[in-house]
């Protein structure tokens, strides 16, 4: 049952001002699930008005004792867990990820919200040494109205990553879920109301990029925008922010993250890590390990075992508990990925397995492996966001680090080795926001996450994740 | 004098044994000791008496629970926080029963017991949030080194708490210790062991592994001392008198140099300036001394009043003190219960005599408030001089001592002329005056236009002989971890 399909402003449900709706598709079948109200600039304006009122210095939200704010935030986490069965089915229906993965995402989201609830009464400014007749201190104040634009690959989790630090710091929010996946965000809006957040503190406006997202990025009275998505759109967001009111911007963008498997790695372990590093979430992962560098000494073994694992990967109905991989999100992505398969073949990489559609309904693609990939091929340079493992051979460690770093991306990187010095030296030299040694995608709520270079700027998670959600005010009191 | 009888409801005492390894044990020496209801002077029940051998048992259990591969040590930090939060939830769940038990044993009004329990749960919640947030650092160094610090749990923490806020003190101690991953042996005061033992059952229910928290009731000389001197307890935290605090520090030094934090007494000043609203000042000063029958390390036991408002302040304070309702703590109208026991009761009355003898003017109170139990009337002395006994020594009883002052510079000196330094309060509307007092008062907490503003996030502790180390806030974690510095050399070839 789809309960919520309208815009959520001021703890109320609204129809779109323009009176239009848009279809939401089930990627497992290609069929429409329902229609959702389509938010545009006028709706964003309404949300901004509600958010501004909720942010007034005398408002209930601004006057809440920190511990009370924390309790509200934790209550929301409890409700996510309470409704996990329904929510995970809704997430799978709309996004296509296996139900087990949806459940994992929801638990991770609740844990993230809990983590930030714990920070609320611990966000401290400082008193600073000054002249004896001065009292100097800093305050960490909420920024104000925060626009948040999230993608479709982890709908609930991306929402939690955005809400957590923003609410912990006392801000108010206007969130635009991806137009592909608005349904769970709208359900969560109802949970926020149930948890007891005052009206206007969190507003959820479904809509597209050009009409809705753009209205947020260029709004004169939104104080900050946080965007997770492609580099291309990220740049547009930053431009629009600059052209309007210089709202603060944080960006979490794409990646072409390397996983480097050294000669001393345990092959079976390496194969299993590399497999999940690329194929998790049907490879629709900003940190997908999409360049697998394997040392020449273990290369052939690695390829053979990886193919076997890929062939055994169960692709199918995400509601089937045996399924490991669901569909890609929509037709457009589906086509784009198959185009990359063609490009790989044309550029001379060897197609080891997969490389085609799975089934004849929905947007399923078989786990695909290319070997003999060269650094200058398109499949080695561009973010595919689809289940294609590209394996590149290397001999020299100094050289592979250079190759791993020669990209304008810099989100994640992995190394598999037993050697102490090698592991720590890779950690020093890889140009990525997160480096994982003998692991991949080790996302932990207390560990900051974000990009070097064009993979974005600013950090989410951890204490660092708070930094983009408060403004520092310095106070100097002269003792006269 | 009006007489009353305390009528406690029927309260079942469930736990009277020693809690070690999530089990209940009888005392090794086979003895028990009586626990008294201070509202009546009558015995509530007998409790197993822990001594050195029981502490040894607890240490063994705690050691095992602290082993590097133990369930407790291998818990994900956020999971540790979750168990702590569960304990806080259980405190709130059982607040009705716990509040009555606290009032039965300690004598504070039931509403105060409830407030204490809510505060205790909030403190645990606060520290649960720190479990996955306290960090070491990576440090800049040469390119061939990886340099960082780890904040590791210290190990077995002995915690000795007093009788004035049994549940709140338990939470204040457990919070930071558990957040940092330590294991604990806690000795509640021999006056008030009952709620600590009930909390032990809640700790087990919350899911703490066996041996992580152990609670051993007993006295100071045979039980507390065993903790202080133990060769295998790594840290001790003590809240109580300066006299015993010094012994704790000595004992720690003589044995194994265990780390020591102390929260001791106070003779805290409240300074009321000429521009203060007198009614507000009277109200603040009243609560500041009389709350919890003045059994409060932060009691504002020296009230400095500017001469311009002195007479008005005295008249109104006396009126308010006379109205304060002393009685059965189970009666919801009661504001003040009994003092904790006969010994304190006698001591306080002696101080009152001393004040009279020294020439202070007894404005009201000054005697017992009931025939049964240990109740004392709210007492106000005016015209107190700085060198009187009642002006210098911690009474821990409902005696307000009021001093006159003219000069602000002088009153700061007078306020600071003590070996104590726990807290201080100032009432004034003037910005510069307030901030200068803040700068110059030698106290761990300074409160402006308020008093007893305790918050889980604000560090609390003493200057000078009021103690060392801080509880609450992020600072409260510091005594509970050891810093390990790691340097890894990156050998030249990859």
Automatic annotation (TrEMBL), chain A:
It comes from Adineta steineri. InterPro entries: Ald_DH/histidinol_DH, Ald_DH_C, Ald_DH_CS_GLU, Ald_DH_N, Aldehyde_DH_dom. It comes from the Eukaryota. PROSITE patterns: ALDEHYDE_DEHYDR_GLU. The active site is at residue 252. Belongs to the aldehyde dehydrogenase family. Keywords: Oxidoreductase. Pfam families: Aldedh (PF00171). The keyword Oxidoreductase applies. GO terms for molecular function: oxidoreductase activity, acting on the aldehyde or oxo group of donors, NAD or NADP as acceptor. PANTHER family: ALDEHYDE DEHYDROGENASE-RELATED. This is Aldehyde dehydrogenase domain-containing protein. Residues 13-475 form the Aldehyde dehydrogenase domain.
From TrEMBL, chain B:
The keyword Lyase does not apply. PROSITE patterns: ALDEHYDE_DEHYDR_GLU. The keyword Transmembrane helix does not apply. The active site is at residue 263. One of its GO terms (molecular function) is oxidoreductase activity, acting on the aldehyde or oxo group of donors, NAD or NADP as acceptor. Pfam families: Aldedh (PF00171). Gene3D superfamilies: Aldehyde Dehydrogenase, Chain A, domain 1, Aldehyde Dehydrogenase, Chain A, domain 2. Residues 24-486 form the Aldehyde dehydrogenase domain. Keywords: Oxidoreductase. InterPro entries: Ald_DH/histidinol_DH, Ald_DH_C, Ald_DH_CS_GLU, Ald_DH_N, Aldehyde_DH_dom. It comes from the Eukaryota. Belongs to the aldehyde dehydrogenase family. This is Aldehyde dehydrogenase domain-containing protein. It comes from Adineta steineri.
């Amino acid at each position: 049952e789809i309960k919520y399909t309208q815009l959520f402003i001021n703890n109320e449900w609204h129809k779109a001002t323009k009176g239009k709706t848009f279809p939401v598709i089930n990627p497992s079948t290609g069929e429409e699930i329902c229609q959702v109200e389509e938010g545009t600039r006028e709706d964003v304006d309404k949300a901004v008005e509600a958010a501004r009122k909720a942010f007034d210095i005398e408002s209930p939200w601004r006057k809440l004792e920190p511990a009370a704010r924390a309790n509200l935030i934790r209550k929301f986490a409890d409700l996510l867990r309470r409704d996990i069965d329904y929510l995970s089915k809704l997430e799978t229906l709309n996004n296509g990820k296996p139900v087990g993965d949806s459940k994992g995402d929801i638990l991770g989201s609740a844990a993230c919200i809990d983590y930030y609830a714990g920070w609320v009464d611990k966000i401290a400014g400082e008193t600073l040494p000054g002249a004896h007749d001065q009292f100097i201190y800093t305050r960490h104040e909420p920024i104000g109205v925060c626009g948040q634009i999230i993608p479709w690959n982890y709908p609930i989790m991306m929402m939690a990553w955005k809400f957590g630090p923003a609410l912990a710091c006392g801000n108010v929010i206007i969130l635009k879920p991806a137009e592909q996946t608005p349904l769970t965000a709208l359900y969560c809006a109802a949970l926020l109301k149930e948890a007891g957040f005052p009206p206007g503190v969190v507003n959820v406006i479904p809509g597209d990029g050009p009409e809705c997202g753009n209205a947020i990025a260029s709004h004169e009275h939104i104080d900050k925008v946080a965007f997770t998505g492609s580099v291309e759109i990220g740049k547009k967001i930053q431009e629009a922010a600059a052209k309007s009111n210089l709202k603060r911007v944080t960006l979490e963008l794409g990646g072409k993250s390397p996983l480097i498997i050294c000669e001393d790695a345990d092959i079976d372990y390496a194969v299993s890590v590399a497999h999940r590093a690329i194929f998790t979430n049907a490879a629709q992962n900003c940190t997908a390990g999409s360049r697998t560098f394997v040392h020449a000494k273990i290369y052939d073994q690695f390829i053979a075992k990886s193919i076997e694992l890929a062939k055994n990967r169960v692709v199918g109905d995400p509601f089937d508990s045996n399924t490991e991989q669901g569909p890609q999100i929509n037709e457009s992505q589906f086509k784009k990925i198959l185009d990359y398969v063609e490009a790989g073949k044309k550029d001379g990489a060897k197609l080891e397995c997969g490389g085609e559609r799975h089934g004849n309904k929905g947007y399923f693609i078989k786990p695909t492996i290319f070997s003999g990939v060269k650094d200058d091929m398109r499949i080695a340079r561009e973010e595919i966001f689809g289940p294609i493992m590209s394996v590149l051979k290397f001999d020299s460690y100094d050289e592979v680090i250079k190759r791993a770093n020669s990209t304008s991306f810099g989100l994640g990187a992995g190394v598999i080795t037993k050697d102490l010095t090698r592991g720590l030296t890779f950690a020093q030299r890889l140009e990525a926001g997160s480096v994982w040694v003998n692991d991949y995608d080790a996302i932990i709520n207390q560990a900051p996450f974000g990009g070097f270079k064009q993979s974005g700027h600013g950090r989410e998670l951890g204490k660092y994740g708070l930094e983009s959600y408060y403004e520092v005010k310095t106070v100097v009191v002269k003792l006269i | 004098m009006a007489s009353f009888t305390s009528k406690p409801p029927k309260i079942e005492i469930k736990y009277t044994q020693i809690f070690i390894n999530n089990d209940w044990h009888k005392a090794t020496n086979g003895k028990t000791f009586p626990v008294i209801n201070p509202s009546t002077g009558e015995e509530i029940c007998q409790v197993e008496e822990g001594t050195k051998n029981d502490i040894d048992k607890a240490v063994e259990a705690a050691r095992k629970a602290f082993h590097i591969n133990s369930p407790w040590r291998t818990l994900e930090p956020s999971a540790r926080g979750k168990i702590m939060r569960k304990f806080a939830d259980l405190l709130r769940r059982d607040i009705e029963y716990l509040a009555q038990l606290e009032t039965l044993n300690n004598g504070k009004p039931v509403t105060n017991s409830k407030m204490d329990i809510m505060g205790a749960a909030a403190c645990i919640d606060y520290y649960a949030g720190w479990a996955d947030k306290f960090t070491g650092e990576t440090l800049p160094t040469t390119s061939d080194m990886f340099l960082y610090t780890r904040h590791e749990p210290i190990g077995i923490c002995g915690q000795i708490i007093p009788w004035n806020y049994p549940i709140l003190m338990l939470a204040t101690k457990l919070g930071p210790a558990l957040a940092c991953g330590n294991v604990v042996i806690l000795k509640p005061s021999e006056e008030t062991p009952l709620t600590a033992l009930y909390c032990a059952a809640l700790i087990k229910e919350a899911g703490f592994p066996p041996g992580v928290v152990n609670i051993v009731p007993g006295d100071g000389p045979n039980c507390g001392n065993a903790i202080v001197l133990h060769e295998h307890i790594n840290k001790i935290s003590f809240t109580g008198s300066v006299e015993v605090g010094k012994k704790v520090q000595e004992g720690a030094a003589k044995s194994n140099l265990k780390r020591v934090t102390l929260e001791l007494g106070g003779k805290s000043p409240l300074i009321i300036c000429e521009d203060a609203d007198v009614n507000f000042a009277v109200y603040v000063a009243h609560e500041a001394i009389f709350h919890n029958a003045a059994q409060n390390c932060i009691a504002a036991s020296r009230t400095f009043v500017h001469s311009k408002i002195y007479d008005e302040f005295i008249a109104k304070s006396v009126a308010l003190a006379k109205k304060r309702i002393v009685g059965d703590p189970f009666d919801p109208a009661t504001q003040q219960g009994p003092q904790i026991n006969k010994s304190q009761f006698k001591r306080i009355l002696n101080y009152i005599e001393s004040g009279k003898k020294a020439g202070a003017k007894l404005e009201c109170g000054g005697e017992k408030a009931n025939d049964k139990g240990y109740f004392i009337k709210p007492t106000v002395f005016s015209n107190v001089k700085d060198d009187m006994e009642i002006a210098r020594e911690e009474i821990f009883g409902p005696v307000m001592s009021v001093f006159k002052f003219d000069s602000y510079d002088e009153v700061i000196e007078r306020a600071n002329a003590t070996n104590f330094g726990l807290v201080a309060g100032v009432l004034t509307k003037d910005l510069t005056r307030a901030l200068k007092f803040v700068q110059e008062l030698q106290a761990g907490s300074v409160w402006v236009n308020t008093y007893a503003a305790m918050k889980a996030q604000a560090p609390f502790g003493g200057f000078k002989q009021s103690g060392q180390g801080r509880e609450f806030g992020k600072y409260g974690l510091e005594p509970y971890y050891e810093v390990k510095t790691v340097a890894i050399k990156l050998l030249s070839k990859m």
